[in-house]
Amino acid sequence: MGSAPVLVALPGTLCAPGVFDSLAAALKADLRVEPVSWLTWPGPWDIPALASRLADHIGATWGGPVLVCGHSTGGAIALQLAARHPGTVDGLVLADTGAHMRGHGDVGAILDRIRAGWGEDLRAAVLDRSFARPLPGAVRARFLAWAAELDPQAVYDVLASQRDLDLTAQLSGITQPAAVVHGAHDRARSPEQGRELARSLPDATFWLAGTGHTPVWEAPEVVAAATRDVLARAGGAGSPVDGPPIAALDDQV
Question: Does the pTM exceed 0.85?
Answer without folding.
Answer: yes
